[in-house]
Structures are given as C-alpha cells and as structure tokens.
Design goal:
Helices cover about 50% and strands about 20% of the residues. Helix 3 (about 45-50) packs across helix 4, helix 5 runs antiparallel to helix 9 (about 240-260) and helix 6 packs across helix 8. The radius of gyration is 19 Å and the shape is globular. By secondary structure, it is of the alpha+beta class. It has helices at about 15-20, 20-35, 45-50, 55-65, 80-110, 150-160, 165-175, 185-200, 240-260, and strands at about 40, 70-75, 75-80, 115-120, 125-130, 200-205, 210-220, 225-235. It contains nine helices and eight strands. The chain folds into two domains: about 15-80, Arc Repressor Mutant, subunit A, CATH 1.10.10; about 85-260, GAF domain (Beta-Lactamase).
Length: about 260
Amino acid sequence: MPNKNNPLPASGNPESERYYSRAIGNALRILEIFQRVGEPLALSEVARHAKLPKSSVFRILRTFEIEGYLQRIDGDRFELSGAAVLASNQLSSRITEAARHYMRLLSQEFGETISLAYLFENHIEVTAVVDSPHRIQMGNAVGAILPPHASSLGKCIAAFQTEDRAEKLVRAFGLVRFTPNTTVDEASLSKEFELARARGYAMDSEESALGGNCVGAPILWKEGHAVAAISISVPKMRYRNPERLIAAVRDAATAISGELRSA
C-alpha cells in the first residue's frame, strides 16, 4: 500500500515507478484536495492536508494560479477556477463512459431503474439513467440534483467525504423532509453515514419518495473518497431479494472504481 506521504503509482509496478514524477504527483494531489474540501484554502491549510512543506506547496499553488487552475481570493486564499471545474467535468464524462456497461448489466438482470450520480463542487447530480421497462417504476432524470440525506446515491457519496465536505453538501441542500421516513436530524444522519462507510453501500427506504426503495454504492477515487455512485431503484411492490441487489450494486461500483484507477 502506497505511503500517502511518499506516494507512488497505484500499479506498484517497479517499471512504472521508474518513470513516476513526484512533483506532478504532488501537484495532482493538491488539486484533488481542493476538489474534496470544496472551499477556498490558505497555503498553510493546503500544506497540512497534503503533508508537504509550505515552500513546495507555494510553488505548486503559484503554478496552478498562473496556468488558470486556481484563483486567489481574499488576498491569501485559493479556490478552483473554471479550468479546474472543466477538468472535473471531464472526469464525470470518464466515469459515465466507464459505468455504461455495468449499468446495462444491472438493467438486464433486475429490470429496474439504474442511475449514476457525480459529485460536483457543491452538489450531487444525476449524470446517467437506464430506465426500467416496467410501467410502474421509480424514475430518475439526468441533471437532477440529489439530496445527500435522503437518497441512496447522495448518502453514499456524502458518507465517503471528509466531515467538512459532507457537512457542506448537507447544508447546501438543506435537511428537507420528503416523506415521514426522511432523516432530518443531524446526529441520526451522521450515524447513517457511518453505517454506509462500514457497509460500503447506502439505502433509501421510502425516504425521498413513498413507495420506493433504492440501494446505492460509492465509486471511489484516490484516498478512498467517493466521486460518484451507482444505484438501483425499485418500487416497494417489487422489492425482493435485497441481498442480491446490494451485492450487484457493490460489485458494479467496485468494478467502475477499478477501471478509473487503472486508466
């Protein structure tokens, strides 16, 4: 397992490590920190997150600022610029392409609605859907903004973030009550996130819509943070064999995560 303070390529192949650029690796880690935290950061904060000397971090920040990936605000803080957001959108497209095959397989096995969601800077958004062929179905729509507290996709993405980032996502959407089953208590939601991390999946049991059940699993990027999630949505009347649903969704998420890391 790579040492986070001395990162090496995920392949572990000595031939690959021979060509590894530590400087580029550190720079990419710093961009990922900004995407993960989701708010402006000062030099000292970036250095603390990256576990790197301030002098090294300053050179990286200044380079990103000159190249247009970061912009300076309030004098001494940095935030992602439009160019970095574009890079995030490109990652979203990569994930969507990687997920299509597994979404089709899930649709063929279960005949239910399969959804993919991606974590943007301050919200979770549906990026792909395979609709159920059934007349009665749990629908979803590309572009829909998902509640991080009341949907399986939202919960399993929020659960696999830093505590600050998860809180920001919840605050940005608000603890809206959609049904009597919706969790609107912060302490209870924190326990749900903890359970999702332990299980590797999250549930929506009539929390966003009455009569519907949904199970989602996170698509993990570097350092174990979720960048996306995949789910199956099933009407309560057809919600059978949840163990198989959970296993299939988790397997699909794991496969997609593996493809991203090996690309």
